[in-house]
Amino acid sequence: MILLSHEDWLAHRGRFIALWTDARHAYALYEPGELVAVELVDGAYPALPHAGAGWFQRLARDLNGHTATGATDTRPAIEHSREADGRGPWPDFKSPELEGVHQVAVGPVHAGIIEPGHFRFSVIGEKVLKLEARLGYAHKGTLGMIRGKSPRLAARFAARVSGDATVAHGTAFAHAAEAALRLEAPARAVYLRAVMAELERLANHTSDIGAIAGDAGFAFLDSRFALARERICAACAAAFGHRLMMDMVIPGGVAGDIATGGAAAILDALDALEAELPSLKRVFEDYASLQDRVVGTGIVPPSLAATYAAGGYAGRASGQTHDSRLLPGYPPYETFALYVPVEQEGDVAARIRIRLGEIPESIRLIRDMLHALPDTPIAIAPPIGSGDGLGVAESFRGPVWYWLRIESGAIADVFIADPSTLHWPLLEHAAATAILADFPLINKSINGSYSGVDL
Amino acid sequence: MWKTVARHLLSRAPLPRTADPAVVKSLRERVGASRLGRSLAIRHVPAGSCNACELELRATQNLVHDLTQYGLSFTPSPRHADILLVTGVSGRNMREALLQARAAMPEPVLVVAVGDCAVDGGVFKGSPAISGGTDSVLPVDLMISGCPPSPAQIVQGLLSLIEANEFPARAVTPRR
Fold first, then answer.
1. Helix (H, G, I), strand (E, B), or coil: what is residue A332?
2. Which of A106, A43, B101, A88 lies closest to A76, judged by CA?
3. Closest C-alpha among A402, A446, A122, A121 to residue A305
4. For residues A166 and A170, what is the distance between their CA atoms, to the nearest angstrom?
5. B residues 80..99 contacting A (CB < 8 A)
6. Three-state DSSP class for B11?
7. A235 against B169, higher pLDDT
8. CB B52 to CB A87 under 8 A?
9. CA-nearest residue of chain B to A143?
10. What is the pLDDT of residues B143-166, one digit of tens each?
11. In which residue ranges of chain A is pLDDT below 50?
12. B171 falls in which pLDDT band (50, 70, 90)?
């Protein structure tokens, strides 16, 4: 960590990832893991000019009461100011002042089986002029629950920040705890973590591609991809005892070894997916009615993705090449010559193509890693120590960052930056390029986590 | 593509699944037959979950678990629903929406809490941002535990609601 003066804090440039505060400092994180800080003066710090900083500055005020001096956006992030009976004021949603504009309110309870969030559209006819997302409905007080606990105990909360990325969150948390305690996880644990992370990527990519097709009314791809996810989850249960592999990654290693026959179950599921993937891909590319819904829909231009330093498929479909498995990189990926697909179009179709392209790569990685599993212990106990640590892991939707300060074996402070935080503003921009009926497709193609940002 | 479709039409073999008799018996005693019949529509409300329960709920509809074959289906509107299915801790920010969804449903309503968070707050028990499990907001008829429960466990739990509705074991009494 580098402590900066107020001028240097404002002048600092780079790909901004996250901002948070503790009792004495405000911290800003830039790629690929450059952490700078500035001292708080009367609970305030200078607001950063980066586009992505807005949400984090609002969050810091809601969580810790620290204000960003000079911030233009001072809406609450997750604080709803509700009474004990649950009632609370609605924010003042502003519409563009044009004739014929009206608002459409959606949520927090949605039509499908998804997380809670409120969307306020300003529309003229079908055309969306503006989208404002109100989040915070899934706020559970996760950061507060982590404070005061030992790293092993707190891993249960990291695993439940965003259930679809539980392995990635667990791994990023473990990386941060291991960095703080100067601990190195054994080689077998490192490989097993990567196998689980790639399985998680496959499960989410298959289920989400299917769900996007389902939202466009194309049930065939939905059922086939849902079946692929089911096979992967069943194999994960056979190999690691849990369909989502929750609580498997712990600081110092992994909680259990791969079961006897587990590798065979995983390889069978991969074979089934690999065999069917080309025909499913052809169906996706050949159906004009499906392509009509996804091509040119919900465009995130590369310049916008760069402004927000978008990671994962949302960034890579818009020309961003960043992948935290390569930069800053963490073991064991340096051994496996990772290929990362990149597209330029930035529409729903490009995001699907990125995910279709990542599936064969994850299949290859899992096969290679299972083949080369080192024969070492699977975990070592974390010592009771003190220190600061930064950790990253690439979830299916982008890099997950954890920052921890451990004092005498207990976590004194923590911050979690899910990639969704930088994706939600992209969704607001992309939705305003399309019609209302296309919003489910755009939302699903970016697939921000609600729970991951509500904390 | 037609070859693929034909192959999978032929190869489907749904697993027979039945409800736990003890759960059915207890449901009949506590809730009574609701006279809703064997076809129940479910309205899902996420009250503050980590989205793992949502993933597994969606998985109950896939080709393997095929919830619809038992007469259970998810509906987009609470107005058409018989079952209010709640996932996640009861977060303070979702209390109002959860109560509104319940109020929008026609009586009688069966309330099901799915997942450890909905059962009693799960790992988040004691957090000041939540009020606890679903029963801290609404009376709950059936709880399906697990973090998250597997689709098979969810299907089995929901089946007991259908079984309990099969025939009235005793006179219908007011539920609460």
1. coil
2. A88
3. A446
4. 6
5. 88-89, 91-99
6. helix
7. A235
8. no
9. B127
10. 999 999 999 999 999 998 888 877
11. none
12. very low
pLDDT in tens, A351-407: 999 999 999 999 999 999 999 999 999 999 999 999 999 999 999 999 999 999 999
Q: In A339-438, where does DSSP find H-type helix?
A: 348-371, 420-431
Q: Is A161 in CB contact (< 8 Å) with chain B?
A: yes
Query: Which residue of A78, A109, A157, A277 to mutate against B (max B Cβ within 10 Å)?
Result: A109
User: Rounded to a whole number, what is the distance in Å from the CA of A84 to chain B's nearest CA?
Assistant: 8
Q: For residue B20, is it left (φ>0), alpha (ψ between -120 and 50) or beta? A: beta
pLDDT band at B104 (very low <50, low <70, confident <90, very high): very high
pLDDT for the residue B3: 76
Q: Does B18 touch chain A (CB under 8 A)?
A: no
- Which of B46, B62, B123 has its CB closest to that of A160? B123
Q: With contacts defined as CB-CB under 8 Å, which chain B residues touch A157? A: 123
Cβ separation B93–A142 shorter than 8 A: no
Output the CA torsion sign for B132, A449, A123, A109.
negative
Task: Quickly count: other Cβ atoms within 10 Å of residue A90's Cβ.
Answer: 10
| Residue owning tokens 């038992």 | B70
Amino acid at A420: S
Q: Copy the structure tokens of residue B31.
A: 């809730």
Closest by Cβ to B51, choosing from A230, A243, A449: A449
pLDDT confidence of residue B172: 43
Q: What residue has token string 């954890």?
A: A402
